[in-house]
Specification:
With 875 residues, this protein is of the alpha/beta class. The chain contains 29 helices and 28 strands. The strands form six sheets. Strands 19-18-16-14-13-12-27-28 form an eight-stranded mixed β-sheet, with no helix packed on it. The chain has a seven-stranded mixed β-sheet with strand order 20-21-22-23-24-25-26. Strand 23, helix 26 and strand 24 form a beta-alpha-beta unit. Helix 3 packs antiparallel against helix 5. The longest helix is centred in the middle third of the chain and has 27 residues. It starts with 23 loop residues before the first helix and ends with a strand. The relative contact order is 0.06.
């Protein structure tokens, strides 16, 4: 007997438990479990790749094209493609050589027909955004009553610092407008995709990114009636005809319940969240993201760590999740055509075609539960093509399967052609199918153990092709992505499998689901620790041009590294030397960094960190120890500053007031450091940021105290005195006298603060014979009161002045004259919209004899010296 697609098969070979008669697939699959590998196929069939790429590019371009241009492209390609195809019909009766000679023409015909199909699909989808009443009403910013059907899960925007406050968060939902009515008009039936923006929770409720709005519990396919204002889409090129801005409406008005599958998927997702409620913070946030892409619990700090290490793909359901599930069913992906060898299906006695049907059901359930995001749809489509090949008994390469999936998906939904997530997913899959096997084989030839070689080849191949695209999005290249992905890879599979098991069991047996989630929290916690550790490395990433030119440059650099690396692999000592240099560049040991860069300067006493438009300072208090005054607006920036200084212990964090540009970076200060206490002003406004600080302190069990004038502290050679704000008078004590008022002196009652700035904590610091005055963001009324306070004499003739409120124009000349600083430091952001520092303030400081330095031009500033000597270094 001879297999139709392979060599003769012996009649006495075992049938691997699938019956006495082998199908052609079995015949070409080998003999039994653990025996020789199957025969090698010929060269990879790449004929579908050009049509898929052509359709992809055509769809991306035609979505915005004029209908006439799209129609002309469709007609031209269709006519030419049909003519070429018709000219090939007689070749069926020709010799094999003639048929082979006609393949280029056949490929050209297929490419033209695919371009025509993509142009037609993209043209129709693009026209959908321009038809109906919604686009016209959006241009008029009309207020309407609309009936919408949700097409995505609601998601909460991340809090962003804008100036001295945190921008209000909003709920974002993708939806389709089904009916729209202008006040006094008639309701019109239509269908237009819109982005619904719901301004619901006040900033105080969601300052940490976790809202409890009723809108967040809505499921896709739910129908709502909303009163809102239409506006044009904020960015071009998106699948949005308009923006529907909903003002605070309380409970959403539901007019249609979600579909049965969506309700079922919602129950499963809610069950997984409930099962993970008792886990530690990182696994509780990460596990739903790993399993079903639910990132609602991911904190901005953890999300940033995943971005820095290029592990963000683990937070989005992608082909990796689906591959893990298929591997359980079919066995390892490399043995997909040998399903009888491994996997659950052959061990349960399920036939080959039954396995394909079961895999199809699994694909459908995967898409429903995880939502049809681009990466999910791509993974399921590619898996469906492979399963179809398995069911029909035909051997196919995975490259044609991927090309088929891309082609079908782009024709079905042309907007995927502009999705970066879809692009990254396809590129990563292509890298794993093409480069990874070759690189793994090369590593094995050089003595690397097989399992390690496969993992290294896969991680390096995916990073090499995906890094240029990531650089376009983030303007940064991670140097720790490969090792972090390699270390995380070993935990992704168990976390995903246990997470899906918890998802499936939660609706019927919550205790079992909780036990499974508890088991899954170990690998999930490991992934989070890898991300945090990689992001904490000072040289873990480098800035890179965030453009396609920068992507091309990175691709060229990667090619050079690969070519050089191939030669270095034959020289172990050179490999070790370059590896050591790379490790030193990433870890950046403080002694080595100081020797190379001169930062921080020896004997530094104060460092004003460059944190943009905000304040963050560090006072030296011993080796690896510093008192932090304010945290700036960005956790990453202040964390980088502290790491460059080698600060690991912070006895006290002083937050002068609760404006976001002084406290929003607090998570970066606390990251990986021992913090003794947090001291704040007693004026807890804005309330949302005060609550934010107290929540962070409570999680880390850090005590929070209030500062008041007269307080004095010391740690090592560093001492300081709080000079503002004065202790507030009790409400029933009209004759109250501020502490420290000399006898016979008329007490000066402090003015009630007009806002958070006037309640800023001001400090007079003494270190190594230097005196430093730190004024927070005090405004002129508080500055004048400070100049008349009992501490006024101690403020005369200071060495260093931290200028109040980023050098704004609102300064008290009397206090500047009294302080008469030798050096004035201003912390402000480059090209900030406030005009800080004001030219008049800089001129007044220089007129008083002070040297003026500012972070927007000079970067981070370090003050060193002692005994009257004063030196300044720039980073």
């Amino acid at each position: 007997m001879r297999s139709p697609s392979g060599p003769p098969v012996r009649q006495d070979e075992p049938a691997s438990g699938l019956g006495p008669t082998r199908s052609p697939v079995h015949a070409s699959s080998g003999t039994r479990l653990g025996t020789a590998r199957p025969r090698q196929e010929g060269p990879t069939d790449l004929r579908l790749v050009p049509p898929a790429l052509a359709a992809w590019g055509t769809a991306a371009l035609v979505l915005d094209a004029h209908p006439a241009w799209a129609f002309g492209l469709v007609t031209g390609c269709l006519v030419i493609g049909c003519l070429v195809a018709v000219g090939l019909l007689p070749s069926a009766r020709r010799t094999r050589r003639a048929r082979v000679a006609s393949w280029p023409r056949a490929s050209a015909a297929a490419l033209l027909l695919c371009v025509a199909a993509a142009a037609a699909s993209a043209g129709l989808h693009g026209a959908d955004l321009r038809r109906g009443p919604v686009p016209g009403l959006a241009r008029e910013y009309a207020t309407v009553t609309a009936e919408v059907e949700l097409s995505s899960d609601p998601r909460l925007t991340r809090p962003k610092v804008r100036g001295d406050h945190v921008a209000p968060t909003a709920v974002l939902i993708d939806a389709d407008v089904l009916r729209v009515q202008v006040a006094g008009g008639t309701a019109v039936t239509t269908r237009a995709p819109v982005l619904v923006i719901v301004d619901t929770a006040p900033p105080g409720r969601v300052a940490d990114g976790r809202g409890r709005s009723p809108w967040l519990g809505l499921l896709p396919s739910t129908r709502l009636r909303v009163s809102a204002r239409l506006a044009p889409a904020m960015t071009g090129g998106d699948r949005v005809a308009a923006v529907l801005r909903v003002r605070d409406q309380g409970e959403p008005e539901v007019v249609g319940e979600p579909s049965g599958p969506q309700r079922f998927a919602g129950r499963l997702r809610a069950g997984l969240r409930e099962a993970t409620d008792g886990l530690p913070a990182d696994p509780r946030a990460l596990l739903p993201g790993l399993v079903v892409g639910d990132t609602s619990r991911i904190t901005p700090e953890l999300e940033e760590a995943f971005k820095e290490t290029d592990l963000t793909h683990t937070l989005a359901v992608s082909g990796a999740n689906f591959t893990i599930l298929l591997a359980l069913l079919l066995g390892p992906p490399g043995l997909a055509q040998h399903v009888e060898r491994r996997g659950l299906a052959p061990r349960l006695g399920i036939s080959l075609r039954g396995t394909a049907v079961l895999g199809g059901v699994l694909s459908l359930g995967f898409v429903i539960v995880c939502r049809p995001d681009p990466s999910v749809v791509r993974a399921a489509a590619c898996g469906a093509v492979a399963l179809l090949a398995l069911a029909t008994g035909r051997r196919r390469s995975m490259i044609p399967a991927l090309a088929t999936a891309v082609l079908l998906l782009v024709l079905y939904d042309p907007w995927l052609a502009r999705s970066y997530g879809f692009l990254l997913s396809v590129v990563a899959t292509g890298a794993l199918l093409t480069l990874a096997p070759r690189w793994s084989a090369g590593l094995r030839r050089r003595g690397v153990p097989p399992r390690l070689a496969e993992a290294l080849g896969a991680a390096a191949a995916a990073q090499a092709l995906c890094a240029p695209i990531v650089a376009v999005l983030s303007a940064r290249v991670s140097l720790v992505a490969v090792p972090c992905n390699l270390l995380a890879e070993f935990a992704i599979a168990p976390a995903t499998v246990l997470g899906f098991a918890a998802l499936a069991t939660a609706p019927v047996a919550m205790p079992v689901a909780e036990a499974l989630a508890w088991c899954a929290h170990w690998p999930a916690g490991w992934i989070a620790r890898i991300a945090r550790a990689g992001a904490a490395l000072p040289g873990g990433g480098v800035d890179w041009p965030g453009s396609w030119a920068g992507a091309a440059l990175l691709l060229a650099a990667t090619l050079v590294v690969v070519l050089v690396g191939r030669r270095l692999l034959g020289h172990p000592w050179w490999c070790a030397a370059w590896g050591l240099l790379l490790a030193l560049a990433v870890v950046q040991p403080p002694p080595l960094t100081r020797a190379v860069t001169g930062w921080p300067p020896p004997g530094w006493r104060l460092v004003m960190c460059d944190v943009g438009q905000g304040d963050a300072m560090v006072l030296a208090a011993g080796e690896g120890t510093g008192v932090v005054v304010d945290a700036g607006p960005d956790p990453q920036l202040v964390d980088h500053c502290l790491r460059s200084l080698g600060i690991s212990t912070i006895p006290l964090v002083v937050l002068t007031h609760f404006h976001a540009d002084h406290v929003a970076g607090l998570p970066g200060v606390l990251r990986g450091r021992a913090v003794g206490a947090i001291e704040t002003t007693g004026f807890e406004e804005p309330a949302d940021q005060a609550a934010f600080v107290r929540r962070l302190a409570a999680v880390r069990r850090i005590p929070v105290t209030r500062a008041a004038a007269g307080e004095q502290r010391r740690t090592g050679e560093l001492s300081w005195q709080v000079v503002w704000p004065p202790p507030g008078p009790p409400p029933d004590s009209p004759s109250w006298t501020p502490p420290g008022t000399p006898p016979g002196v008329l007490p000066v009652r402090p003015p009630a603060p007009e806002g958070p700035n006037d309640a800023s904590v001001a400090m007079l610091v003494r270190t190594a014979g230097l005196r430093l005055l730190l004024l927070g963001d005090l405004e002129p009324p508080a500055q004048r009161a400070l100049a008349r306070s009992p501490a006024a004499e101690a403020l005369e003739g200071v060495d260093v002045l931290k200028v109040a409120h980023h050098g704004s124009a609102y300064q008290d000349p009397g206090l500047i004259r009294r302080a008469a600083p030798r050096l004035a430091l201003i912390s402000c952001g480059e090209d900030n919209s406030y005009g800080h520092p004001a030219p008049g303030t800089v001129a007044a400081l220089r007129a008083g004899g002070a040297a003026v330095l500012r972070t927007d031009r000079d970067g981070a500033l370090a003050v060193a010296g002692g005994g009257g000597e004063l030196r300044v270094a720039r980073d």
